[in-house]
Amino acid sequence: MAEAAIPNQALYINIRDYLQEMYRPAKVNEALVKTLAMMITGMLLGPHVQLFAIAMWVPLLIKLPSIVRRFERFVADGRVDVGKYFEPFVVAMIAALGNETAYLIIDCTQAGPKCRTLFIGLAYHNTVLPLVWKTLKGKKGHVKGEFQKQLLNQIYHRLHHCRQVIVLGDAEFSNEPVINSLKPKNWGFVLRFQSNYQIQLEPEGEWMSAKEIYEAAGLKAGQVKHWGKVYFTEAHKIPNLTMTVHWEEGADEPLCLISNLPPSSQPHLIYDKRYWVETLFGNCKSRGFQLARTQMITPAHIDRLILSIAIATCMALGLGTHLIVINQADQACTERSRSIDRADRRDLSLFQIGWRWLYRLLALNRLRELKIVFRWDFKLPPPGFQAAK
């Protein structure tokens, strides 16, 4: 059926059939699955989160206002349990993880004019695969630690069999509820904190700010220092942690990190993966689906909108993964149509590689080659010019 349809219709049919197969064990409402497939198709073809803009690209003979109203009903439908609908994708991603360390990145971003969304995702080849999210009212300010803790608990049952889990987060997440919720899980963590936080270097010792400690140690630009078995914050006295202070060359001030990892694990190098979340947010926003431009103000509605964004993101990343894997297996790259990025360097993110590959498959009417895979056992080519060997 897909081969007889025009390419855009074939894409919808592929996505619809893919979702129906994923949701068959859960017996999800078929009409809701079709609506979700329409939203994902419209987002991939005309990347935008405003419902009329998505509806414009739905390749079905349905009146445009009817499609928009259908989308409005979907995001407002309490039967659409975001966790349940995204569960098959989480299972697929974690199954592909195998024996690798799971680096979880937690962060928050603006979603619409009056809301913020808290995300937890899995670090994946210089970007992040979304795992779970929750939207709440408020444009600015930190999300409360108890709210962060609840979201971490929500994903725990899927990750507690992993060999190792390490949570990475900015200063917003270096709070007592988060840290004390991670310790019983036997998860590692590396969290940034403000240099005015009080640290105790030894029992019964003086409480000093991190800034006082690294200044007394004579830390200079280009250096990194670790302090083991410290107590974190005078208010909570969380014991047996590692403080790492890294002053990168050219930076105005040092980066202060608290972790439960030994200094030998180089927490500051692990923390570098936290910045990968900016690639995910870029894909969801200015370089992709324009999430910040939605006019929705109801958190539950935004969560259901993000459901379609998250699935579309996973599809693009899975397509990009498959393309890189098959191209690396065929070093001669005899199939010219599989060349999406430049041969002498990588200019594109994994997301963009997958997205552009989807558009090429549509242009060439070759959607039969559409395949979504997640793999950690390949190396993403480094960005920038690579001299020919």
Would you give an account of this structure?
With 389 residues, the protein is an alpha+beta fold. It is 40% helix and 19% strand. The protein contains twelve helices and twelve strands. The protein has helices at residues 7-23, 30-45, 51-56, 64-76, 82-97, 145-159, 176-182, 210-216, 267-271, 277-284, 299-329, 350-363; strands at residues 102-110, 115-124, 127-137, 165-169, 188-192, 198-200, 207-209, 224-232, 238-246, 255-259, 345-346, 384-385. The strands form two sheets. The chain has a ten-stranded mixed beta sheet with strand order 3-2-1-4-5-10-9-8-6-7, with helices on both faces. A hairpin with a 4-residue loop joins β1 and β2. α2 packs across α11 (299-329). The two termini are 45 Å apart. 38% of the residues are buried.
Could you give a quick summary of the protein structure above?
This protein is 40% helix and 19% strand. It has helices at 7-23, 30-45, 51-56, 64-76, 82-97, 145-159, 176-182, 210-216, 267-271, 277-284, 299-329, 350-363, and strands spanning 102-110, 115-124, 127-137, 165-169, 188-192, 198-200, 207-209, 224-232, 238-246, 255-259, 345-346, 384-385. It starts with 6 loop residues before the first helix and ends with a strand.
Key terms:
two-stranded antiparallel ribbon, ten-stranded mixed sheet, 12 strands, globular, alpha+beta, 389 residues, single chain
Helicity level, as a percent range? 25-40%
Secondary structure category: alpha+beta
Biggest sheet strand order reads 3-2-1-4-5-10-9-8-6-7
Reported for the largest beta sheet, the result is: 10 strands, mixed
Low-confidence stretches: none
Residue-averaged pLDDT, rounded?
90
Count of helix runs? 12
Q: Tell me the total number of β-strands.
A: 12
Task: Based on Cα principal axes, name the global outline.
Answer: globular
